[in-house]
Write a structure and sequence with these properties.
By secondary structure, this protein is of the alpha/beta class. The chain has 13 helices and 7 strands. The protein binds S-adenosylmethionine.
């Protein structure tokens, strides 16, 4: 089941104006998008992004009864400036991002996101990657050992990064690592079962691979700059992150805008889910919501 994270909190902090223009950069199951649309009247606009066409289809269905104007695009949110230009929109009142994957994506074995089910090593947020898009298979089977090790350390703080990278390269010389379970077997051979703590040893490698496959940090850095430029004075940027590397990028960017007197931090400390929310939805465990408001000139 798909349960939206920090649902009420993120809608409240957007302070949605009835006739405003709002971006949901990560439609997913469109629960947040529907809550934004619910606050908009017929003169309001909701612009929704997702790389996954299934999310666009879900959003079209879920949003159809709301009177606001809807612009739903199957595009990376890093192309925000281009999409605004194509739609003759200069500025927006608010931007919301709920980063990472959706529970629909992780539940689908064909997408290769989960180490708990066997599937091809895709891990692309796009549901129909082309030959130009890199997949987790490409990384695991073709990248240089040192680059794989650095990626595992940088994107997931994997302390066994060198050992895992060395074993991946040794294994792929024997035969390609084709599936999620092939990769899990490699990781398990490096990190013996007795070393496992509460989390599966594949957790960090899968997280790092997903981030690298989709250039998630690059996309966040780009949307922060482009999104902030597109915000009206008084407009708000609200972002939910799920791990420390991603959160650091958002925190530093928000802090820099505040230090330059261009914005006010609405959240000095990130908003975190309550214990009840975490009990109901384990995905909320690591969620953090940060909010910035552009200063009125
Ligand atoms: C956590 S889910 C969003 C859940 C959503 N807030 C809801 O109410 O259901 C993240 C979604 O964002 C999409 N996504 C992640 N990064 C993206 C990017 N750079 N551009 C466009 N979509 C992205 C994913 O495909 C996924 O569907």
């Amino acid at each position: 089941m798909h349960i939206p994270v920090l649902f009420k909190e993120s809608i409240d902090v957007l302070s949605i104006k009835k006739n405003g223009v709002y971006i949901d950069g990560t439609l997913g199951g469109a629960s947040h998008a529907a809550a934004i649309a619910e606050h908009l009247g017929p003169d309001g606009t909701l612009i929704g992004f997702d790389l996954d066409s299934n999310a666009i289809t879900r959003a079209e269905e879920k949003l159809k009864t709301f009177p606001c104007k809807k612009i739903l695009v199957r595009e990376n949110f890093r192309k925000l400036d281009q999409v605004l230009l194509e739609n003759n929109i200069e500025q927006v009142d608010g931007i919301f991002l709920d980063l990472g994957w959706s529970s629909f994506q992780i539940a689908d074995p064909d997408r290769g996101f989960s180490f708990q089910v066997d599937g091809p090593l895709h891990m692309t947020l796009k549901d129909n990657p082309t030959d130009e898009d890199i997949t987790a298979w490409d990384i695991v089977n073709t990248w240089d050992e040192n680059v794989i090790a650095d990626m595992l350390y940088a994107y997931a703080d994997e302390t066994a990064s060198r050992k895992i990278a060395r074993t991946i390269v040794a294994e792929r010389k024997r035969k390609p690592i084709n599936t999620t379970f092939d990769l899990v077997a490699v990781i398990e051979s490096v990190l013996p079962r007795k070393a496992w703590m509460r989390t599966n040893p594949a957790t960090k490698t899968f997280q790092a691979l997903r981030i690298a496959t989709n250039d998630e940090y690059g996309a966040v850095k780009e949307v922060l700059v482009k999104g902030f430029a597109a915000l009206k004075p008084g407009g708000r940027f609200a972002i939910i992150t799920f791990h420390s590397g991603e959160d650091r990028i958002v925190k530093n960017f928000f802090r820099d805008q505040a230090h330059a007197d261009l914005a006010t931090l609405i959240t000095k400390k990130p908003i975190k889910p309550t214990d009840e929310e975490v009990k109901e939805n384990v995905r909320a465990r690591s969620a953090q919501l940060r909010v910035l408001e552009k200063i009125s000139q």
